[in-house]
Input
Amino acid sequence: MDTVVLADVDGTLVDSNYLHAVAWSRAFRDCGVTVSTWRIHRAIGMGGDQLVSAVAGERVELLHGDDVRAAWAEQVKPLLGEIVPLSGARDLLVEVKRLGCGLVLASSGKPEHVDHYLGLLGVRDLVDGWTTSEDVEATKPAPDLLGVALHKVPAERALALGDSVWDCEAAGKLGIPTVGLRTGGFGEAELRDAGAIRVYEDPSALRAELRDVLELV
Output
């Protein structure tokens, strides 16, 4: 297989980023820590192992990190039912396979969340594999998770799809080009500055030009 596409899930294929930001905000408050929701949103795309210190500092991570992550897990449970696929997400993945590419969902989400999204998108039998937060010790922007995803389908070339600067940075550390989607709330300039070779409004817009994009890899 010549090319494998490594697709992020949260914010890239499902409309979850803002709900995750709310869940993290509530989790911090549950632990007696106040963090502005806008600041949390800017860190969505990182795994939970990275996010607490990124938005609240190393001291909060040291004193409350595990408690905040546990509280987030409880806060996000009732919100999962509100998460829906982004417009054209499944069609994009179908097109990836139609063009003969391998397809791995490179998610840093909890295993039960990734399983939920596989069903929500209806792609369990379409994709060649997926990752979860349990596959690595350090999640995005560390490159480890993409490294695991890369080895699930042997290919000469790889292309990453993501919605955050953290996706772009992680892929860049492995020399993998990234296409950015604005569906996570990051601007075009931010995604390009982080390394995205192209930026699209949503999965449908990328699908329309996917063949051309793959020729850039």
The CA atoms of residues 11 and 184 lie 5 Å apart. Strands lie at 3-7, 102-106, 129-131, 157-162, 178-181, 196-200.
